[in-house]
Amino acid sequence: MAEKRAIREFAANGDVLAIADEWAADQAYKTVEESSDLRLYKKGTGFITGARAVEIRNQGKQLHLEAWVIGNLPARIFSLFILPAEITIESGGAKAVVPRRQGRGEVNKLLERLGQEPIA
After folding, report:
1. Are 75 and 46 in contact (CB under 8 A)?
2. Looking at the domain 6-113, which fold is it?
3. Between 46 and 106, the higher pLDDT residue
4. Domain residue extents for the chain
């Protein structure tokens, strides 16, 4: 079974939340939660293709990133509940292939800006 979220933790250099905010604007993600050390971004409604979410926590000198596709109720009903409520953007498996690939490409652009390895 696929994991619910792709999770990465790495050393943070510079103002990573400002970098993340710029990335979110470039990728058309909307900020749905924000604090001095947290950003939660969401893109899409999930009606045509799965909505994507990215959460970033700045924990001192460490950055914690989680990325996933949201399986909304209509999409889950149409899939006869084969689609889970959350699924990772990492490759592998036959569920939510298109939105996972889209999310992976988007998040990999952020990871590149932060000097990190892409999600496969």
Report:
1. yes
2. TATA-Binding Protein (3.30.310)
3. 106
4. 6-113
